[in-house]
Amino acid sequence: MAGRVLLHICCGPCAIAPLARLTEAGLEVVGLFANDNIQPAAEWLRRRDGAAQVAARFGVGLRVDAYDPLPHMRRSLADPAGRCRPCWEERLARAAVVAREQGCDAFTSSLLYSRYQDHAAIAALGRAAGEAAGVAFHYADYRTHWDEGVALSKDWGVYRQPYCGCVLSELDRYAKKLRRPPVIDG
């Protein structure tokens, strides 16, 4: 791959390894923060700021889409068990359109850094979004750089989020604790 690539960035820590690999390869990188899935708004702001902090470290411009979580929330609540695939699809489709608008040769996503995401599904959705928008999807498995991203995000003081993004993933995070009886001090 050569030229200009758009990187969809879900958060600062997840952007470190992809940005390092893309810039090391001599590519011109355009950043996009388009994440209506993140709730609540305060969390979106923390992640936006973390993404901007990391993009600035790499000398990459960051486009930030307006925040409108309601359509995502409606879809997620309609099908809680199947919420992830439409979420990935929506963000990858947005990234493909912006990549085409920005004159990029390809696009990719920091979703490919996470050990917790379905890479096969993301790759298939990325390819489909790219075909629909007329821009190539660049798949790379950034999970092998997991430790690097974690260490650098801590060293740089980048906000590290404790859950995927949507309110339902936050509930999943606390599922076991919510079933436990209350703790009474005394």
Task: Report what the structure shows.
There is one protein chain. The protein is α/β, with parallel strands linked by helices. It has a single domain (4-179), classed as HUPs (Rossmann fold, 3-Layer(aba) Sandwich), CATH 3.40.50.620. It has helices at residues 12-24, 41-57, 70-78, 84-101, 119-133, 146-156, 167-173, 175-179, and strands at residues 4-8, 28-33, 62-64, 106-109, 136-137. A 5-stranded parallel β-sheet has the order 3-2-1-4-5, with helices on both faces. Helix 1 links the parallel strand 1 and strand 2. The model has no long low-confidence stretch (mean pLDDT 93). Belongs to the QueH family. [4Fe-4S] cluster binds at residues 10-11, 84, 87. This is Epoxyqueuosine reductase QueH. Its EC number is 1.17.99.6. It catalyses: epoxyqueuosine(34) in tRNA + AH2 = queuosine(34) in tRNA + A + H2O.
| Name of the top-level CATH class | Alpha Beta
Give the percentage of residues in beta strands. 5-15%
Question: How many β-strand stretches?
Answer: 5
Fourth CATH level, the homologous superfamily: HUPs
Shape: globular
Return the average pLDDT rounded to an integer. Answer: 93
Overall SS class: alpha/beta
CATH architecture type: 3-Layer(aba) Sandwich
End-to-end C-alpha gap: 63 Å
Q: Which stretches are low in confidence, meaning pLDDT under 50 for 5 or more residues running?
A: none
Tally of individual helices = 8
Helicity range of the residues? 40-55%
Domain count: 1
Protein name: Epoxyqueuosine reductase QueH
EC number: 1.17.99.6
Organism: Solidesulfovibrio magneticus (strain ATCC 700980 / DSM 13731 / RS-1)
Enzyme class: oxidoreductase
